[in-house]
Design a protein that fits this description.
The structure is a homodimer.
Chain A lengths: L10 H12 L4 E4 L4 E4 L9 E4 L20 E2 L10 H10 L6 E6 L2 H16 L4 E6 L20 H13 L4 H13 L1 E7 L19 E4 L10 E4 L3 H13 L9 E8 L5 H17 L3 E8 L9 E8 L2 H8 L10
Parallel strand pairs in A: 3-4, 3-5, 5-6, 10-11
Antiparallel strand pairs in A: 1-2, 2-4, 7-8, 7-12, 8-9, 10-12
Helix pairs in contact in A: 2-3, 4-5, 6-7
Amino acid sequence: MKKFVNAPKDFVPEMLKGLALANPDTLKYVPEYNLIMRTDAPNPDKVSVMQGSGSGHEPAHVMIVGKGMLDAACPGDVFSAPPMDYVLETSKLLASPKGVLHIVNNYTGDRMGFDMGREMAEADGVTIKTLIVDDDVAVSDSTYTVGRRGVAGNFFVIKAVGAASEAGAELDELVRIGEKVNSVTRTMGMALTSCTPPAKGSPLFDLGADEMEIGVGIHGEPGRRREKLADANTIIDELTEAVVTDLPYERGDNVALMINGLGGTPISELYLAYGRAHEQLAGRGITVGRSYVGEYCTSLDMAGASVTLVRLDDEITSLLAAPAEVAVRIF
Amino acid sequence: MKKFVNAPKDFVPEMLKGLALANPDTLKYVPEYNLIMRTDAPNPDKVSVMQGSGSGHEPAHVMIVGKGMLDAACPGDVFSAPPMDYVLETSKLLASPKGVLHIVNNYTGDRMGFDMGREMAEADGVTIKTLIVDDDVAVSDSTYTVGRRGVAGNFFVIKAVGAASEAGAELDELVRIGEKVNSVTRTMGMALTSCTPPAKGSPLFDLGADEMEIGVGIHGEPGRRREKLADANTIIDELTEAVVTDLPYERGDNVALMINGLGGTPISELYLAYGRAHEQLAGRGITVGRSYVGEYCTSLDMAGASVTLVRLDDEITSLLAAPAEVAVRIF
């Protein structure tokens, strides 16, 4: 397989070790529980914020641990939910007098691991609340999900909640903020190619040389339909239309626009896509107040992209603009 | 082809338009000369710093225009040097009383375009000096190059020179700094896959399903040899060995270590590779003082990576650590 990998079972631990070695002052790798946490967590003056999910979506979530974002992330193996004992142990390591917030993308496996881990941690005296992210408009239920899937929009929930937690907000206030951001955030993605999990060594699903999948999930779950390849404008127009009409976003709205790459698409193409989406929104009288172009929530090496919108108000804008420090950077 | 593209001839202009739309306060797109420049350039109190090269290497160079980096970038079409008149017009637009610095990767086409553009701009009264970047240790001459190729190490030259220019350094001083950084910077890369230029619509070169190319150039130029796929550790050990022994970097050295993705490799794999390279250096008594993991200089959608080392001293460390603001970011 065309990947940097040694033994597939070591893929996630070796990635996490590299991440910690590259960020010795800010990140700590705890191999027993497969977790990455801030070296300065827990901080008794703030709620601890954590997320776990399958690996393979990097930078989500292990590479967005840091000041103003997550206090820790406990990933499972590639495309596998984190085990309940990792959720338990991470929650205990993060226990702060102000409590712990779990952010969970809406997949049945993730919810189960987090529900059970939370119960056990509460029995150990940790105060916990949970935020569910379900921003994907493509389908109403899915292969691994009851209800909508959580995808790239989780970045905005984490960013807003992380900023508020850094400013000292209480646990209930973080739940209010996170639910509010999730409620105004919508995403739809599409795949140009499949992706190759290290342990499988071959593509996760088949997609013909002249085909694409509109509305794909971040684990390759089926979307709305499979069809012939189209040009960039056609694809971006369809994704934008699906997202805009879902909330709906309306003339006069001020939004954050994210073009998220799925892992195998270069940033040149993402900026090309951004330009089209921006113009489509302008044509509908929707103003882009904040722009995000790059990889936020990926599917290993899948070529493809998603479009996310967030309806901004003063509170959300200020939380998104607050400083944050994470491993993923160019400098 | 599995790309976000409309008419291939519009690929670069559409990318540049998207880049400017996403960064309206800081970047300006000048379609007549295919250039991206800072909205606040030229600044009469600083030397203007510019680079041009073929497109397809993003974020290099159009996405690293900004405070503390480049004042402008004039790209050519995909894998084509910028035409001399773009170099001329960009130089004139950037004309500052303190002069203009051209940074050029060592490819024959780029050097020709810049030499002729410089001559014409000097005839128009612009003061110009040129810095050549040639950090690639893989081969001594190459398909499009006399001497060594300039690859991902150009990031460090730009970062250092950009920081010094922001602090008011004179043109000769920037040349001294840039030549110094280039002289202690070495890179070698490898390809797991070919890449697909939009205008060609098919892979630029053939690489078998079980093959890789060690020492590949960023336009797919042949490297040292083609061989059977190997595991990540074997690949990274070979790249690191080739880079370390070239300068050479020695026990007691403090270095910046960059793992640069070539466009199609996800960041999970890059951090795995980083961990191995970091350990290999530690085993040689070389300390990593600064870490860079991500995409800096790509080859469209090529899967692969390069390893770069920079030998640090106090001056270089301080220039690399200085603040900079460019489009490529997660926030």
